[in-house]
């Protein structure tokens, strides 16, 4: 109620120039997430995300609407159907075997801690590209570099997100310049799968790898207790 009273006294809630809606009660949250989900489900695009995703192209960043629903339909029918998942099983098993062999070799050669996050990112890269391209990806280090760069840039704070009308803020934003440079590097140096593949793949890799890491750790409760 204190927040509601403050808004009545001082006007709309803003982050910089951007109006925001504050759900201060459970009932308000339910209205947003359930009743009016179709209105609020579109992910706001940051200034950096607009640069890296060509202003919201692709299923990862596209606004909710006819185009997004069509992309989702294609993914479900052509990529995530039971037949396709079954047909790609040998590829997944091959890449898992490579991953396990690499972990065993790496742990036996040195007593250092195994970088599981990096290995899982490499596995996801090889498995996905193998399914799409029909072969392994020799330049996976380049791809992972772009992925890490994109995730860091998109996840960072940028003043242009709070003051979108200010040209001065955009000109002084180091993060936005970094996003533009990263986008240009993808065009100039990336393999021929295309810039849009990288912008969408960044999102997929960022969500898949942490989930795999959580699954691996959840199967080792003793290690979790030690940490």
From TrEMBL:
State the family it belongs to: Belongs to the cytochrome P450 family.
Q: Which Pfam families match?
A: p450
Asked if the Swiss-Prot or TrEMBL record annotates the protein with the keyword Iron, the reply is yes
Fetch the InterPro entries from UniProt. Answer: Cyt_P450, Cyt_P450_sf
Per UniProt, which keywords does this protein have? Iron, Metal-binding
Origin species, per record, is: Aegilops tauschii (Tausch's goatgrass)
- Protein's name according to its UniProt entry: Uncharacterized protein
Can you tell me where the transmembrane regions are? Answer: none
Example GO molecular function term? iron ion binding
């Amino acid at each position: 109620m204190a927040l509601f009273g403050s808004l009545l006294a001082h006007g709309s809630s803003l982050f910089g120039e951007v109006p925001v809606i504050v759900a201060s009660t459970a009932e308000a949250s339910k209205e947003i997430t359930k009743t009016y989900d179709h209105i609020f489900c579109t992910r706001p695009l940051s200034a950096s995300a607009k640069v890296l995703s060509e202003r919201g192209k692709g299923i990862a960043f596209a606004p909710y609407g006819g185009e997004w629903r069509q992309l989702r339909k294609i993914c479900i029918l052509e990529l995530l159907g039971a037949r396709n998942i079954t047909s790609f099983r040998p590829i997944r098993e091959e890449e898992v075997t490579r991953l396990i062999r690499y972990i065993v070799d790496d742990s036996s050669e040195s007593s250092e801690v195994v970088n599981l996050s990096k290995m899982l990112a490499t596995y996801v890269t090889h498995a996905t590209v193998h399914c799409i391209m029909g072969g392994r990806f020799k330049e996976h280090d380049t791809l992972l570099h772009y992925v890490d760069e994109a995730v860091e840039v998109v996840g960072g704070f940028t003043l242009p997100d709070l003051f979108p009308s200010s040209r001065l803020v955009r000109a002084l934003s180091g993060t936005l310049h970094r996003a533009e440079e990263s986008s240009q590097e993808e065009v100039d140096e990336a393999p021929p799968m295309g810039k849009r593949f990288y912008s969408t793949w960044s999102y997929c890799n960022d969500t898949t790898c942490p989930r795999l890491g959580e699954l691996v750790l959840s199967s080792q409760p003793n290690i979790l207790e030690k940490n």
